Amino acid sequence: MSDLIATKEYTLFLERIKQDIQTAQQRAHFVVNQELILLYRRIGAEIIKRKQDLGWGSEVVQFLAADLKHAFPHMRGLSQRNLVYMQTLAKRFSEEEFTQQGVARLPWGHITHLLDKVKDYQTLCWYVQRTVENGWSRNILLTHIDNQSHLKFGNAQTNFALTLPSPTSDLAHELIKSEYNFTFLGLAEQVSERELESSLVEHIKDFLLELGSGFALVQFQHVLDQIKQKSKDGACATQ
User: Fold this and answer.
1) Beta carbons of 103 and 93 less than 8 angstroms apart
2) pTM for this entry
3) Is residue 173 part of a domain?
4) Residue 1 in contact with residue 10, Cβ under 8 Å?
5) Tens digit of pLDDT for each residue in 169-205?
6) pLDDT per residue over 96-128, tens digit each?
7) Spatial contact of 65 and 79, defined as CB atoms under 8 Å apart
8) What is the 3-state secondary structure (H, E, C) of 33-96?
């Protein structure tokens, strides 16, 4: 048992588990972000509809922002400014177009910058697609917009596949750190990535214990304990 960690089989097994965890984390973050952005578009569309049907004026945004802040005090993204962005988002993309173009795969910060800087619909779709495909961070996206990359590379839309970007991409990293997504789930704004990882480790340990005794269980627990301890040490070092 003591030599188990040094074996090739165990090393490969550990790498596979780590990759599975990273993939599951990425999918979870993208699902949360997608639900949040879909919610934002629905809110924008509902505001527009009531303005048209009931004759409500722009002051409804002020009242709505105040009431939502009272109802969801820890949730970011419900300010007057963001409610205006939500309406702009609903105007720029129909519900079908919104799903097809993959807008909901971008963090809210990416989307607001795109709405501010890119007015042409086809060009907007080009930047959305290239950001998802290439995993661009917000700063990289802004650089491409400022350099008018759509003119240099052609702004014709391609056959866009709605696949997840690389887990190591800047886009994936920014989604994981998004405070909009944290507060949407009811998590405290102060929650850290290390705390999330530590919580995940606890769930993995519980799962392994439920499996019962096995040839790798004890050693695998030892590895997870080491990971957990490193997370604690790192958290203490940053305080």
Assistant:
1) yes
2) 0.69
3) yes
4) no
5) 777 677 767 777 777 777 654 455 555 555 555 555 5
6) 787 777 898 899 999 999 999 999 999 999 999
7) yes
8) HHHHHHHHHHHHHHHHHHHHHHCCCCHHHHHHHHHHHHHCCCCCCCCHHHHHHHHHHHHHCCHH
- Distance, CA of 155 to CA of 126 (rounded, Å): 6
Count of structural domains within the chain: 1
Show the domain range for 129: 4-191
Residue 135 has pLDDT above 90, yes or no: no
Give a yes or no: residue 198 inside a domain.
no
